[in-house]
From TrEMBL:
Transmembrane segments: 12-35, 47-74, 80-102
InterPro entries per the UniProt record, alphabetical: Uncharacterised_Ycf66
Keyword Transmembrane: yes
Pfam families with a match to the protein in the record: Ycf66_N (PF07444)
Lineage of origin: Bacteria, Bacillati, Cyanobacteriota, Cyanophyceae, Synechococcales
Protein name: Uncharacterized protein
Keywords, ordered alphabetically: Membrane, Transmembrane, Transmembrane helix
Length: 122
């Protein structure tokens, strides 16, 4: 049985599924940046890369899956539980947005440092 009403859980399911697209893409780029700039194979770099790999897979697979479950089955939740799930989804998005913003600022600082160093050498 599929109920076609749009409620809090369905709306946050759509939002979570849509947020997973740029979040997963930025996770993949983050892995590439770590692997490109690190030439050492220390345990810290390897563990950090493995953590980012699992995090990116979670963003790519688990977030859209949870969004789909909320969209299609969220009508079964009572209103208080819908509100609680919506708050959790909004907090996840806010938390990941701050991390994405920090990663972008670090990337811009690295790109600016590289451009400044090449300009000085020539």
């Amino acid at each position: 049985m599929l109920n076609a009403s749009l409620n809090w859980a369905s709306a946050t399911g759509i939002l979570l599924a849509l947020w997973s697209i740029p979040s997963a893409a930025l996770g993949v780029f983050q892995i590439f940046f770590i692997l490109q700039r690190r030439a050492d194979t220390s345990l810290q770099v390897i563990l950090n890369t493995i953590f980012l790999l699992f995090q990116s897979l979670g963003r790519l697979i688990v977030m859209p899956l949870c969004g789909g479950i909320l969209f299609f089955q969220g009508w079964r939740l009572d209103p208080i539980l819908q509100f609680g799930v919506s708050l959790l989804v909004f907090l996840v998005i806010i938390e990941s947005f701050s991390g994405i913003l920090v990663d972008y600022q670090k990337w811009r600082a690295r790109a600016g440092g590289v451009a400044a160093n090449t300009a000085v050498k020539h």
